[in-house]
Design brief:
Layout: H1 5-8, H2 17-28, H3 32-44, E1 51-55, H4 60-71, E2 75-79, H5 88-96, E3 100-102, H6 109-120, E4 126-129, H7 133-138, E5 151-154, H8 157-168, E6 176-178, H9 183-206, E7 214-218, H10 222-233, E8 237-241, H11 245-253, E9 257-258, H12 261-264, E10 270-273, H13 283-286, E11 294-297, H14 307-313, E12 314-321, E13 324-329, E14 334-338, H15 344-347, H16 354-378, E15 382-384, H17 387-401, H18 410-417
Parallel strand pairs: 1-2, 1-4, 2-3, 4-5, 5-6, 6-15, 7-8, 7-10, 8-9, 10-11, 11-14
Antiparallel strand pairs: 12-13, 13-14
Length: 423
Amino acid sequence: MAKSTADRSIIRDISLAPEGHLKIDWVNAHMPVLNKIREQFEKEQPFKGLKVAISLHLEAKTAYLAKVVQAGGADVTICGSNPLSTQDDVCAALVEDGITVFAKYNPEPQEYKELLIKTLETEPDLIIDDGGDLVTILHSERKDLAKNVRGGAEETTTGILRLKSLEKDGQLQFPMVAVNDAFCKYLFDNRYGTGQSVWDGINRTTNLVVAGKTVVVVGYGWCGKGVALRAKGLGANVIVTEIDAIKAVEAYMDGFAVMPMLEAAKQGDFFVTVTGNRDVIRGEHYEVMKDGAILSNAGHFDVEVNKLELEALSVSKRTVRRNIEEYTLKDGRKFYLLAEGRLVNLAAGDGHPAEIMDMTFALQAMSLKYVNDNYKQIGGKVVNVPYELDEQVARFKLAALGFGIDSLTAEQKSYLDSWAEHE
């Protein structure tokens, strides 16, 4: 007899399910685009008979995406993509809803890795990945589990960088859709979603005022733009640091101070890293920071704030509040690291608002169907979300908002399509 999802799953506590169901019901009521896609999937059954593995920040919005994919006929297995963003009550609710879950809040590093591998040991046909963790395992220590994978979709900038490196080396074994590069992802999720959720996480964790303080935003991509915009709205003085001259000029034109990190480190009260790179705050910066500086990361991995160098400069370390670690330096200065340097908006908050993730996860669901329909033609490549899918998500969003837009007349379309001299 086949095992039930409860028997197969590894979670913290199934008795937490009632609270998880309430969370999922709440986001369900605020995700009209995903609800529209669920209706289509229930009718069309695009994933009937297929296994889908998902690795995303395992909270209520992700849970609802898993249920939408399940509604399309898939046998879904899900794990977390960050040890501190998994919500145990949501995991329990998903198990009750027939989804296999391999996830716990804050497991030991080795157990966290084992949960990722267990997810892949279900031998999925399709995957949804975050940061490239599943794909990396499939192309390194567990190549044997890649044989059934038709393709998948990737959520993040960091993951896409890893995928493109695999593709460049001719190693990518199956197609992956770069969801992060879709207009409806980076324009809304990365900018407005990250901007709001980062400050949600910082504010609820520190309970300190932002107005009048100096906020240093490290990196001015779409996520950095959102973080800086919301910091400005909270009344902060904002400094941007960059390595890209064009983005630095853009930050200046947007009204922010721009300077090298070593200068910014002397002035910042709050620091938010959003680069996707490592060691953007490190020893030389700690040497000049003000007493009481608050350090946080909104990039994918916990490597942007160099913790080893911070510990080496410190004489003591203690937890002073949930998700706040105090480091005391030899000269008596104290710095405060939020959420162990992991994603502050998810590890110390609830992530992006439901209405924002509605669009992103709609792209994920539609991209998964697209890659399943076209994997043989695409091959081992990283491909963009087709524009028509991107636009469809936006049209669903407008319809949910009750807004309409214009269409070109035949004459206007002909005018735009003509190469002849315009009159």
